[in-house]
Known about the structure:
Elements: H1 12-25, H2 30-39, H3 44-47, E1 52-55, H4 59-71, E2 77-79, H5 82-91, E3 96-99, H6 108-117, E4 125-130, H7 135-144, E5 148-151, H8 156-174
Helix pairs in contact: 5-6, 6-7
Amino acid sequence: GGDLWLRKPAPVAVLLEQMRRALMQSPKTPEKERKDASLFDASLGERQPLSILLVEDNLVNQKVAAMTLRRLGYRPELAANGAEAVSALQRKEYDLVLMDLHMPEMDGFEAAHRIRRLPLGRQPLIYAMTAAVTEADVARMREAGMDGVIPKPVRIERLVAALEEAFRQKERLRSP
């Protein structure tokens, strides 16, 4: 019953063209455009600076998430799987890790568990970014040491709330 459909696997160019067409079919009202634009406060990264590691194996999801963070004034560093994330945290301190759960090599659950066991000066907040969030997944996230979840598709309000929480934690840890 949909207006558009694609055969899988769809080439990225075809997927992007279909997405463009779908977006063109629902014109925005001036009020909707103002509301959408107000959600993307490009100065947030200047007012609340954070070091962010984005861990995502899907290239399209990685680009969308990175673009969203850039529109908010952040410059995330990227990792394609959990193993890369653990290595990155051994080299550099991050305030926030946004982690997909289902990735090759090392999934987000195992990566979070290993990050929590690293002898870091300061542990980052770790938020799962995933489409499938079951009660069992949430329990596994907590067991692995994750601080929260941002369901996909990502709602900007939820992402901003996670960014603000990470900044508050950073400031609390700085205060004597």
